[in-house]
Each structure stands twice: as C-alpha cells, then as structure tokens.
Amino acid sequence: MFASPADVFSVLGFDLGIVLGFFALAGLLKPERAFDRALFGSLTAALIVTYAAWRWHDTLPRLEPTLESLWPYVFFVFEAIAITYTLLSIVILFRRSDRSAEADRSERRLTEAGFWPAVDVFICTYNEPLDVIEKSILPALAMDYGPKTIWVLDDTRRGWLKDYCEEVGARYVTRADNKGAKAGNLNNGLATSAAEGGGAPLILVLDADFAPQPNLLKRMVGFFSDPSVAVVQSPQFFYNADPIQHNLHATQSWVDDQRIFFDIFQPAKDAWDCAFCVGTSFVVRRDRLNEMGGFPHEAICEDLNLTNSLMRGGYKTRWLNERLSVGLSAEGLPEYVSQRTRWCLGTMQVALLKAGPMRGPGYTLIQRVQFFHGVLNWLCKPFIVLMLIAPALYWFAGLPAFHADYLSFLRYGLPTLLALWSYNGWVSRSRTLPLFMEVTHTITALAVSITLLTALVRPFGRPFKVTDKGGDRSQTIVRWRMAALFGGMSLLSAGSIAWAYIGPYAASEVSPLDYFNLVWAGVSMLLTFVAFLVCFELPRHETSFAMRVPVRVRLGSLSTDATLAELSLGRASVNLSSRVPLLDPDAPWMIDLPSVGWVSAAADGGSGPSVDLKLMMTTEQRRQLLVFLFSQPMPGIAASANMAGALQGLFRRAFLAS
Predict the structure, then answer these.
(1) Does pTM surpass 0.90?
(2) What is the DSSP letter of 579?
C-alpha cells in the first residue's frame, strides 16, 4: 500500500528538521569541548538506537528454517556489529587528549638542564630501493639531536646499502635469515646496538619510507620522565596521495583514509590511556623491551602487540598528535588493499593470543573494550559487502534484506544517516565526506572479509608481507581483477534496476518495498562504479611540492629575482620577476635553492615568465635538497575534505580522458 502525499511530506518535514537541527549543532558546538562532544554524540546515538530498535521490531520476518527468513537475520547480525562499533566509537570520542603543552614543558626542562638522553634510531628496511630508503636515512642523520646513533636494519642483506650507510655515516646491521619478520629484525637491532654501541636507553623506530622532522626527538623524549610511559607515538603523515585520492583527482580535496584514525581516534584513545603503537615514528624504552624479552613476534602486527604486551605490565603508550614525520603512502591499489588485510589479520591474531586483551590476564575492562573496538572495526567490513549485493538478491532471487517500505526508511533510516554524516564531519573536523568515505570502505571490504574467513581456519603461520614501495609508476595501470569485480557489481545493481521493469516477473505496479530496493540498488551501483574508476591507476611522477619562496636565478651573465613555485629532487618551476631575454637557448641557468645554494640547471619548458628547470646537482647538493624537502611540513595533500573539490575530481575522472 502506497503512502499518501501528506504522509510523505510529513516524514520529509521531520527529516528536514533533523537535518537543520544537527547542522545548527555543528555550527554552534565545538569538538574541542568535552561537553559538546558528549552532547552531539549522545543525540546521534539516540537516533542510532531508535533506528536499531525499529530494525529489530518492525523489519525482520518470523524466524524460520528457510532462506527467505534466514537471510534478513544474517544481514541484521552484521548490521548490528556496525551499529555497535559506531555507538562505541561515539563513547570513545567523548574524551580527547592534547599533549603538545606537556611536550613543550618537557622540551624546555631538558633544554634548561642541558641533558638529552641517548637514542638509538632503528630504520627497518626490506627490499626498498635507494630512492625510498634515503628519504629516511638522510633526514634521520640530520635530526637536531646530539646523542643519537642511526642503525639501518637491512633484512635483505644488500651490499650496496651497506656501502651507502658507510658513506653517509649510518651504522649498518643485517642478519642471516628473516625469522620473526619485522619484530625479528628489530630484536636483532636491539641486540646488535647493545653489543656494539652500548645500547641507548631510548629507541626511535622508523620504517624505511618515513622521514623524521628535525625536532622529532626533542618533542618526544621528555615524556619518559614518567616511568609508567613505555612508548611515545606520533601520527603518520604522507607526502604522496594514496591510490583513491590520486585516481579520483582528489589529492587536494579528500584526506587519506587514516587521518580520522590518527588525528581523531588515537588522541581519544590516549585520553582513556589506550592509545597504541602504529609501527613507525615511535620511541620506546629499551629497559621495558628487555623486561619482556624484546619486541613481541607472535602476531604480524608487532606494533599493536607491543602496546598490549606493555599494557599488561602496567605501562602506557602516549600519543603526541603532532606532525613529526612524513612517509610514503601505498602507491598502488593492490598494495593499499594488502596493507589493510595485513592489519586486519594482525588484529585478529592479537585477539586470539592467550596473553592478549581478549583472553589474557592483567588488562582492565576499559582496555579490553578499547581493543574490542578495534576488532569491531574489521568485523564491520562484511556488512559493506552484504549492503552492496542485497538489492540484487532482492530483484533476482526475491530475498529482501529487511522488510520495510520507503516511507518507513524515510522515517527511521534517513534521519539517522544524515545525523551520522553531520556528526562524523563535525567530530572529525571535516575529515570525512559522504560517498567518498563509503567508497574507501568499499575498496577493501571484500578482501578484508575474505581475510576474516580464512583467519577462522588458519589465523597463524602466514608469511609477513611487506608493502611494496617505489619503482616506476609512470604508466597507466589497470587492475583488471579488481575492475572486473567492482564493474561486475555495478552492472549487477544496474541490471537489477532494469530487471524490476523488464523482467519476466515484473509487476504492473511497483510496490513501496520495490521502490526502497530500487533506490538501494542505485546507491550500490554508484559506490561500486566509483570503486571501478579507482582500479584504473593514473601515472605517477616524481614527488614535487608547491612553494612560494623567493630565489635568485642566473642565465649566463644575467641575474634576476624569481619565485620558486614548485620543487622536486630533479626539477624546479620558477616565476621570473622580469623577462630574461633568451639570447642563447642553451645558455646555462643557475638557481639559488634554499638550504642548498647555487645549483646548475637547464631550461626544460615553461612559457612567459614561468620557466621549468631541470636541476643538475652534485651528489652532496641532491642530499641537501632531499633533507630540505622531506624534513619539514610541505603542502601537497589535503588536511581536510572538501565536497565541491572532490566531486569535481570525480566528474573529471568519470567523464574526461584524464
């Protein structure tokens, strides 16, 4: 039975009121204030609970041993997992820490005392090329910190890397095998640094693709004046776009999918004393490691396992939410997906450990609940897969995921969804966007779901797979298997819409339940189509950074002021303040680069006052430029999301050639 227009307008009016109310709250309340977070979060949670009650009471059929009856319950179970995760997230976000003031005080105290504890810097590497690992080694050597030793822990036994380390002044360490993967490599570095270098009391761990900023150690080491602090962790930032940002032309308008985790959730977890190590850019006490026998290697997520093992002993991980390093994000879609499936498997392994937070002694209730929140994050992914295929199952197999018409969903589902979008954008400080966040989850949902299934059979004993970094990515690459998957799912949703009207069992009138599933099919088609576009990976070139820095340039005997507009390790773009006559097209150029000095160059494009220069540097000049580029915050990747820019990039990707 169709709803009357009056009923529809009444419900839409209620929805509009909810939307306006929540948008008003987003403008009036401040996410920095605890009361505001609790108020906004509680109102959002109330709508979610109301929706969940409606789903349980009004949309499930009588439970019977039939596929038509069981399918809605299976769907609801996974939806309930997602709802539980969302509600728990809201509660966790009631709290938030900001430890920058504490870092200021600690740094000032140590500066006045003139004493800085010695630090061993471990750079873990496995098969990365030189153009990746040098971006970690050279900035580490250049850190503004006296008593430090740089140890490059090479797990692939490369002679050329040993020679490079000797040349630049880093210590080189390797071992005969790869037992224990990254944790084993770190433990070998732990033993070697103790035997050969005396063993500094603090250890900074860096992945091979992360460049520390000069002040990283000075900002972090002061926290260890508290003997209960065993780890100090800083967030991960990236100097390149991830595959979703890059392939949707959204580098300047859509944040990477980890920003809300690093910038929002980890400070919240830190306020509950439950922040955890994320594998790079963290400092750990050597004595605490020695107490527990080194870095734990029972799970492939040695970082998460490290925090929990220390937590069991009463020690804390502190989160310093400052940009103190910058790294290389996964560049290709397969690497992006495999990275997240590895995190999923590692979390499940820690959950299954006898000494872990789910089973072991020594943890508080809050610590167990916080860890369970992380487990739920991965258990939500199958629900996304079910959401994407549910409309097709309805149209082709006659299996509705839940029994509701469009008016009921408008009354209970739509206001909850809109309120949640509003809350997410507010509490994340514009780090989420509708559609784009859903596409991000869609990309990895099936792979993570398969990982969860295989973990039920064989959770342990799999090899540690390092994320591939670097290499030539200058050509368009089509990920055919993933494109076939998402393209097929999009066509399936489109086919289900067509089937509703032209199929042999198409009804003469479309029922309210049909309308609901038609809209649902359209949403599924859109999400999988955008995921399909991401599978066509656009070329990548050398990382460059936008700038507005005054410089001097020379062309032969002529000299002029210019503005440095863009800079990479091989090229510079400058805007000349006055037109320089090209008396000789092949005349040598010189440019006075910041932190480097005068560098030879050759014109290689540009027009008018804008000139592109190919840099011709000595080895030492190139290293100086690398430290300048990667040892300080550089613009390039969006820090907050912008819907207009993201949609513009999506339109360009979908309908234009590039």
Answers:
(1) yes
(2) P
